[in-house]
Amino acid sequence: MKLTLEFGGGLELLCDSVKIHHVNVEPQAGESKLTMKHLLPWVRTNLIKERPEMFMKGDSVRPGVLVLVNDCDWELSGQLDTNLEDKDIVVFISTLHGG
After folding, report:
1. Which of 29, 38, 65, 96 is the most exposed place for a label (fewest CB within 10 A)?
2. Structure pTM?
3. Which positions carry 1-thioglycine (predicted)?
């Protein structure tokens, strides 16, 4: 399944400063659909190059990370249970800033 993953608000620094990633992620064995619950660990393993604790806490994103799936807040589509489809765009934006 081809997805576009975008990182902003400083999260791109965890991915070697690359903001946009075009990836191919397959559902887990025995599953017919890919969900955010399965995508997040894939991102942590394959894209995050340093400090994964800044991206994830437990099996979800850290508080303060806004997640949009096709420009829709994932809180409206089921969060970890959000089903992903081919060519979806998933955006991760950190809303936490120092100062």
Report:
1. 29
2. 0.93
3. 99
